[in-house]
Write a structure and sequence with these properties.
Blueprint: E1 2-8, E2 20-24, H1 28-32, H2 34-40, H3 44-63, H4 69-95, E3 99-106, H5 109-121
Antiparallel strand pairs: 1-2, 1-3
């Protein structure tokens, strides 16, 4: 199952179709053609930066006579986009004023959309209280009289 981050615009109102689901994980197209992948998702600045950096690394490798080292360095840019491309999409949506609604786990994008719609329609009255993380003082062990080891506790002194 894949995790999908659900992003919604700030002043969404009652539009149910205004959400965007972004699959959290590796993107193969981001690895193969990073500038085109960025442009497809309307990340224009990132597309320009990826194009310039990849081209500069390839030309630098050719001009310095390093052979395929420049191409391998541009491959690192591609690998970075493949690994972090979806995170860059989420960051770009946040800069545009979108907020994260939550995370939905599903096998496909359609299943994630259905799950998100069902969870969004669930009434807010059915809130389950969080389990208590700190135990009650009544459940703690009583202090034992006698010799104590340590710097701060001396038996018989307050």
């Amino acid at each position: 199952m894949a995790a999908y981050v659900v992003m919604e615009p700030h002043g969404r109102g009652e539009k149910a179709d205004a959400t965007t689901l972004v699959r959290d994980g590796f993107t193969w197209l981001g690895l193969l053609v990073p500038p085109l992948w960025f442009a497809w998702h309307r990340l224009w600045i990132e597309a320009g930066i990826a194009f310039v950096v990849m081209g500069a690394l390839s030309m630098l490798g050719q001009n310095l006579g390093l052979g395929s080292t420049g191409s391998l360095l541009s491959l690192l840019v591609s690998l970075y986009v493949g690994l972090e491309g979806q995170g860059l999409r989420i960051a770009a949506l946040r800069r545009r004023g979108w907020r994260e609604w939550g995370v939905v786990e599903a096998a496909t994008l359609d299943d994630a959309d259905i799950r998100q719609a069902l969870e969004a329609e669930a009434p807010a009255d059915e809130v389950v209280p969080a389990p208590r993380m700190v135990p009650d003082a009544a459940l703690a062990r009583p202090s034992q009289p006698g010799i104590a080891l340590g710097l701060t506790h001396v038996p018989g002194r307050p």
